[in-house]
């Protein structure tokens, strides 16, 4: 790897926002209406628009399932024309997909937020001098100010629970540095005050019948995949699980244009069900299936880039990132079938919802342990999330959305930014709200009735292939009933005593 290429790939697809600074002279640089500077790596697309009362700056991309042919510029122009104020404009984002950070400036407002899944991340530091700094990962800010891990975080990372965890993640808005916080999905950051507030959801959950919800959700997914295919040269990772099957089924109309592949890593081999099933499904669809190994260790140049591109505690997938970088053309945008777990009852997989969710319960199911640091952050998040419960949503669904997904999956995507841009079609609030509107009895294991119906709505024949063969079977002896709820009430109060 040449010195020029190594310099070009350093902090790939990242950005830095703050007062005037001289770093990254070769990056795209924008002076914003509030006087601050935004520097953006050349491989991260920037779209700037000034229309009516709004000045918008988009990092990344946005997709409109209602108009799959439209560009970033066209989408931003439409929502700017139709919005009367900042609240209206933010509400218009619900129907959109993509992976982005959006800066919004008006005469009175200046805010920043990101896509529904929080997959293009925002970390921020309120400096004692009154300045505000933003970046897609905390290390970029910490390096500038020479921040160190706090004593509390050191204790957390050295706890027995975390020492056994292969891929640790941070609770709530926490980072390894006390001075840097994480902007969670469904929240915005005021660039004037430095304060964070929740902006979604505002409406009570809309209940959906199982088939009705599956049809609507599958339709949105199909249009998002069409929009992405219009915009990008797509490569899709295919496995034997539900998530990639749902997305692959939604690609029925564009499947011949996809580059379909699977990767071997960890314990996967050519004989693993995930691999053989992917080959069978691709064969049925009539498209080539590409298989490559990610067991090769990173070379010296790539290791340097990987270890410098994100804070060390988040580094989990180096060899896999390297394998994809070496085996997949750089012009590809990779379709990742994640975020769907939000609607799959991840923390109550058999559909049996706990009588009461407490910080202690969240510490347990998250597998982060009952460390005081974790407990405090989950308690803070629970207090912030009470409007979610009042509007009829399950707290545990949002717990996965705004904690594990936002702090683990999103950081994984930052890792893979070194190799390729990624697209996650489930990162759309209208799509997620539709799925969450279906009763959890249909969304949970072991039957995954709703997920299978989404596949059938798009491409029925794909439902004939098995799902996750040899996977762990989640058993559910019986479904929700008044007797079960009474039993959980008794159990909860007995444990309290």
Task: Describe the secondary-structure layout.
Elements: H1 3-9, E1 15-18, E2 28-31, E3 37-40, E4 46-51, E5 54-63, H2 72-82, H3 86-92, E6 97-105, E7 110-114, E8 123-126, E9 132-135, H4 138-145, H5 151-157, H6 160-163, E10 181-182, E11 187-190, E12 196-198, H7 210-231, E13 233-237, H8 242-250, E14 259-264, H9 273-285, E15 289-293, H10 300-309, H11 318-327, E16 332-335, H12 359-366, H13 372-384, H14 386-390, H15 395-416, E17 421-423, H16 429-436, H17 440-443, H18 449-459, H19 482-496
Write a short abstract of this structure.
With about 500 residues, this protein is an alpha+beta fold.
Instruction: Profile the largest sheet.
Output: 6 strands, antiparallel
User: What amount of the residues lies in strands?
Assistant: 15-25%
Overall pLDDT score = 94
Radius of gyration: 22 Å
Oligomeric nature of the chains: single chain
Low-confidence stretches: none
Descriptive notes:
The protein is of the alpha+beta class and 497 residues long. It is 39% helix and 16% strand. It contains 19 helices and 17 strands. The chain has helices at 3-9, 72-82, 86-92, 138-145, 151-157, 160-163, 210-231, 242-250, 273-285, 300-309, 318-327, 359-366, 372-384, 386-390, 395-416, 429-436, 440-443, 449-459, 482-496; strands at 15-18, 28-31, 37-40, 46-51, 54-63, 97-105, 110-114, 123-126, 132-135, 181-182, 187-190, 196-198, 233-237, 259-264, 289-293, 332-335, 421-423. A six-stranded antiparallel β-sheet has the order 4-5-6-7-11-12. Helix 8 links the parallel strand 13 and strand 14 (259-264). Helix 7 packs across helix 8 and helix 8 packs parallel to helix 18. The longest helix has 22 residues, at 210-231. It is globular, with a radius of gyration of 22 Å. The chain starts with a helix and ends with a helix. The relative contact order is 0.13. The model has no long low-confidence stretch (mean pLDDT 94).
